[in-house]
Amino acid sequence: MLIDLKNRTALVTGATGELGRVMARTLAKCGANIAIHYRSNEAQAVALQQELQSFGSRTAIMKADVTRLESILDMKTVIEEQLGAVDIVVANAVVQYEWKSILEQPIEDYASQFDSCVMQSVYLAKAFAPAMIDRRWGRFIGINTECAMQNFVNQSAYVSGKRGMDGVYRVLAKEIGEHQITVNQVAPGWTISERDRLNKTERSESYEQSVPLKRRGTDQEIANAVAFLASDLASFITGAYIPVSGGNVMPAI
């Protein structure tokens, strides 16, 4: 079986990021047209666009603030003008900040995580779900984290944002499932990215010992899960939180 996304258009938010680039690349290799969202790194967006076009993918790049509904609606207009309606939404963007203890974490960091995890998910649904309902086909894929199950020290802002995102996605799955739209989450573990390969920081023995598969996962392994959920092979999977963490976290029944 092959993952065939021909004639589908996918939006990847945060597509210029370490994981976002590989997700966009993988979806393009599966045949999808790609809307490349970025917040500030225009040069990376242009480079990614050129790479994806070399695969034969139709692409568009657009700058947007995913924490503002108006910005997302403007982005939607640009995508539809250049690529047509969006079939697959990958919510990957998140605000970066320094992790500290609850007593030390600035209040604004909690707000940034709520806005970029919870409200981004809400805004993307409001923007793109109606047309999916009309077509009776669509995919929402949220990028969560193994941290949402671990709740380790210094993770409070990140975890609270991602756990809020989890709630939105589970409810959304129930609300729009009757229209044959699936809503799922991929939860990476601590993942090896292009930055790690460049800096030779792929290995962490202490972390690897906690993982049943005894290694860190790769950005490609995260992207593979996203591509699967985007495809018709996953047409009867919805409402799922799927760790791609080598067994480091295991949701219980």
Automatic annotation (TrEMBL):
EC number: 1.1.1.-
Source organism: Cohnella boryungensis
UniProt xrefs under Gene3D superfamilies: NAD(P)-binding Rossmann-like Domain
Entry keyword set: Oxidoreductase
A Pfam short name: adh_short_C2
InterPro entries from the UniProt entry: NAD(P)-bd_dom_sf, SDR_fam
One term of GO molecular function: oxidoreductase activity
Protein's UniProt name: SDR family NAD(P)-dependent oxidoreductase
Class of enzymatic activity (EC top level): oxidoreductase
UniProt entry tagged with the keyword Oxidoreductase: yes
SUPFAM superfamilies: NAD(P)-binding Rossmann-fold domains
Record family assignment: Belongs to the short-chain dehydrogenases/reductases (SDR) family.
